[in-house]
Design a protein that fits this description.
Elements lengths: L10 H14 L14 E3 L5 E3 L13 E6 L3 H18 L2 E6 L4 H10 L6 E4 L2 H9 L8 H10 L2 H5 L2 E2 L2 E2 L1 E8 L2 E5 H7 L7 H13 L5 E2 L5 H16 L1 H8 L8 H14 L8 H6 L3 H6 L12 E3 L4 H5 L10 E5 L10 E9 L4 H10 L2 H10 L17 H12 L5 E2 L1 H4 L2 H4 L5 H11 L4 H18 L2
Parallel strand pairs: 3-4, 3-5, 10-11, 13-14
Antiparallel strand pairs: 1-2, 5-13, 6-7, 8-13, 9-11, 9-12
Helix pairs in contact: 1-17, 2-16, 5-15, 7-8, 9-10, 9-11, 9-20, 20-21
Organism: Streptomyces roseochromogenus subsp. oscitans DS 12.976
Keywords: Signal, Transport
Pfam families: SBP_bac_8
Length: 461
């Protein structure tokens, strides 16, 4: 279970960030100073661009492997960050494609005597498991210095285990956004909703105009957990959210029944889902996005729920963010709109000067600024210039994230043991896929969720 230090405990905190995000999507202009160009040599270090905040050692001849589950543009953009590390240090870095669940992938590599030097872990639960298995190595003094300079306490804490720092949260996500096809909304006369009731009204208007309202990535279990978490956080409140995240209340609790019943108002409408329930269960996340923004004003669906990283997939279509593809905060189901965050942390598995240097680089604004400029990425690093993000939508989301400080709730399934919250075909992912297939069986879904949660939390796996 996650420690209490990893999330902020006040209802006011969630309210504050929800208000910030709502304002963030108004697309007003914002600016911040950028970094300087050119390079200079610092004594005792490698190549350091002028204006850089971090000094790295010379690592000529060193070789590193970095494992992550990232694919497509996300992987390509991260490789550009690694290329900059190579340029500055003289080390060579190989990206190792990993599979979900990454802990199982790493276990196989370690058993074979070939662990990567650094792994990007998408769950706090995975960090805890890596520490418990004695795979993870603590961060050294230089990485800790960068982390403390550039991150709020909350983002530092979720990378800690038993008070010791193991993770650098290189990537963040705002998982409380719904993206929509602007032409479809305009043709339907639909307005951006602020409440769940408004969302249902907008969905009906879209449906009446001849377009299916929602694209749901049911083939991938994790987007379904994110749907649930937003509804649950807004409806049940942050205290209940924290209790369920730590399995201090059961999944058979009435608050879970209420959230699933609410979800069924959309998931239970076959004509509201692109391809119906069966089609949704065959739709992987990238396709859920692209089918919303291809086909002009007659796409397969008008709306798709997921985080700021949706922009990577929108970029694969001809749609432009801010004009063709617009976004609104996940509507309030209860009294307050939800704000759920996620992220990926760099964790050292083979302690060496080179691995520590890479962790230090990833904790610096330099690394995050490179990827921010490429789009489809959000950093919790508060010293990344907001102007580095390539469009007004992303700039405002980033500004709101940094302004929130510690006022966020971390993805619930990512806090859970990997066997429950992070394994394809098992646990919460599978149980919510089954619920999407049969949204009328709320009690059955609750029973399955509780059985799998009890087993995973009991074993800690």
């Amino acid at each position: 279970m996650r420690s209490k230090s990893s999330t902020i405990r006040t209802h006011r905190a969630v309210t504050t960030l929800a208000a910030l995000l709502a304002g963030a999507l108004a697309l007003s202009a914002c600016s911040s100073g950028g970094s300087k160009s050119g390079t200079k040599e610092k004594s005792g270090g490698g190549q350091t661009p002028a204006g850089s905040t971090v000094t790295l050692p010379k690592l000529n001849g060193a070789h590193l492997e970095v494992a992550a589950v990232w694919t497509g543009a996300e992987q390509d953009n991260f490789k550009k960050v690694l290329a900059e590390f190579e340029k500055r240090t003289g080390a060579s870095v190989t990206f190792v494609p990993a599979q979900d669940p990454i802990v199982n992938f790493l276990g196989s590599k370690i058993a074979g005597g070939q662990p990567p030097d650094v792994a990007m872990l998408p769950q706090p639960g995975a960090i805890k498991q890596a520490v418990r298995n004695k795979w993870a190595k603590p961060l050294g003094p230089q990485a800790l210095k960068e982390l403390r300079q550039n991150y709020s306490q909350g983002w530092q804490d979720i990378g800690k285990v038993d008070g010791k720092q193991y993770g650098v949260y290189y990537k963040a996500a705002n998982k409380s956004l719904i993206w929509y096809n602007a032409k479809v909304f305009a043709n339907a006369g639909a307005k951006e909703p602020k409440t769940w009731k408004d969302l249902l009204t907008a969905a009906q208007a879209v449906y009446d105009s001849g377009v299916t309202p929602f694209s749901v990535a049911g083939a991938d279990g994790w987007p379904l957990t994110d749907w649930f978490e937003n509804v649950y956080l807004s409806q049940a409140g942050p205290e209940k959210y924290d209790q369920l995240a730590q399995h201090k209340i059961k999944w058979t609790d009435p608050s879970v029944r209420q959230a699933l019943t609410t979800l069924a108002q959309i998931w239970g409408r076959k004509d509201y889902l692109a391809g119906g329930q069966d089609g949704a269960l065959q739709t992987e996340f990238p396709a859920s996005v692209t089918q919303t923004f291809t086909g002009g004003d007659q796409p397969k669906a008008a709306m798709v729920y997921e985080g700021d990283f949706v922009q990577v997939n929108i970029a694969e279509t001809k749609a432009k963010v801010g004009t063709d593809a617009k976004v609104f905060p996940f509507p309030a189901v209860g009294s307050t709109a939800p704000v759920v965050s996620g992220g990926d942390a760099a964790v050292i598995l083979k302690d060496s000067q080179a691995a520590q240097a890479l962790a230090t680089f990833l904790a610096s604004p330099d690394a995050a600024t490179i990827q921010a400029k490429l789009g489809g990425y959000l950093s919790p690093n508060k010293n990344v210039p907001v102007s580095a993000y390539p469009n007004a939508v992303q700039q405002k989301i980033a500004k709101a994230l940094i302004a929130s400080g510690d006022d966020f709730r971390f993805d619930m399934s990512d806090q859970a043991p990997q066997a429950f919250g992070g394994t394809p075909g098992k646990g919460e992912w599978k149980d919510l896929q089954d619920f999407l297939k049969n949204p009328a069986d709320v009690a059955g879904a609750q029973a399955k969720l509780e059985k799998d949660a009890a087993a995973a939390y009991g074993s800690g796996s």
